[in-house]
Amino acid sequence: MSGAHFAFTDRWGGVSAAPYEELNLGGAVGDDPDAVRTNRELAAKSLGLDPADVVWMNQVHGNDVAMVDGPWGERPAAEVDAIVTVRRGLALAVLTADCTPVLLADPVAGVVAAAHAGRPGMITGVVPAALRAMTDLGAEPSRIVARTGPTVCGRCYEVPEAMRAEVAAVEPTAYAETSWGTPAVDVSAGVHAQLERLGVRDREQSPVCTLESGDHFSYRRDRTTGRLAGYVWLG
Q1: Does the pLDDT of residue 74 top 90, yes or no?
Q2: Domain boundary assignment for the chain
Q3: Is 140 within 8 Å of 150 (Cβ atoms)?
Q4: What long-range pairs does 175-183 form, CB within 8 A, spacing at least 24?
Q5: Residue 116: what are its φ and ψ, rounded to 5°?
Q6: Whole-angstrom distance, CA of residue 165 vs CA of residue 212
Q7: CA dihedral in degrees (50, 55, 221, 187; nearest 10)?
Q8: Which of 69, 126, 149, 152, by CA, is between 20 and 30 Å from 83?
Q9: Average pLDDT, rounded, for the chain
Q10: pTM over cut 0.90
Q11: pLDDT reported for residue 73
């Protein structure tokens, strides 16, 4: 939709060394801080963004939302899993390496949000919380555009049976089975079901499974690895 911009990175085109090669954008995974800084600059510039106009989160697998009108500056990034802004040109970023990155925009109202939906965040409602924050600022669910990026798929996200039951009790659409027949959770399916119930019709889901794709970082596959990013902004 005109005015709304969405982007998801893969792992290539950066300067980080193994095991973070190459375009690691996560600052808390053990990589060289200078490499991360360079990678963030490279990623932003490739999108036509000023690196100083990208807002990051200190993600904690919760459901808190922060309203932002600019970068954190000297302050530490807020410990939240969703951020919302009405400032045009300010890009909101979400880091993932198997969790589901959720980007939301209502260009008419001039509101965008980025959310980090892992299994805990999905079942505690981080995406509905982000949507509520957007509607408080004038967004309409029927106008909101939603894009979810590369994530571990339900065929690969193996969990204990008790955990699957716990998740499915909250979000039945997240109930899944691995390709080898064991209990699994489909976080992206759960997120899209939540968005649909809340009236968001314009939704697209990345076909990429991070665990299966060698072009993307996967914590479940590699443990010590980098982080991908999703970006949303209004031009």
Answers
A1: no
A2: 4-234
A3: no
A4: 178/154, 179/155, 182/158, 183/158, 183/159
A5: -105, 105
A6: 25
A7: -130
A8: 152
A9: 97
A10: yes
A11: 87
